[in-house]
Amino acid sequence: QVQLAESGGGSVQAGGSLRLSCAHSELVYNKFCMGWFRQSPGKEREGVAFITYDGSTTYADAVKGRFAIQKDSAKNALYLQMNTLQPTDTAMYYCAADACWRFTRWWPSGFSNDAYWGQGTQVTVSA
User: Fold this and answer.
1) Going along 42-126, which residue ranges are E strands?
2) Beta-strand relationship, 18-24 and 46-51
3) Residue 80 · residue 19 · CB < 8 Å
4) pLDDT, mean of each 10-residue run, the chain (127 residues)
């Protein structure tokens, strides 16, 4: 079973940057996609970005040009570089992993009981 743990969240002023990290166990059973999702109180969890096992990336329109998803498979790590942060980016950020054939069926929804999820890291952006 895949386990994930996020880190790197915090408080930042609008226009600032943060880099989130997700440490995960080895992905050995499928060609996995990995992604970042976020959720604000009272709202649904939504997709932010994901990366496939071969390095292709996809971004939500709201973060294109500002965020970059990266992975280091040798280190079992996933990253989200967030630049030009805005108050609307304030949310709990989660990383997730799932077989790519299935991941791409439920993206950009943040709802999947089949995927593996971390516990989240809080990002707060002040104006």
Assistant:
1) 46-51, 57-59, 67-72, 77-82, 91-99, 116-117, 121-126
2) unpaired
3) yes
4) 96 98 88 96 95 96 98 95 98 97 95 95 97
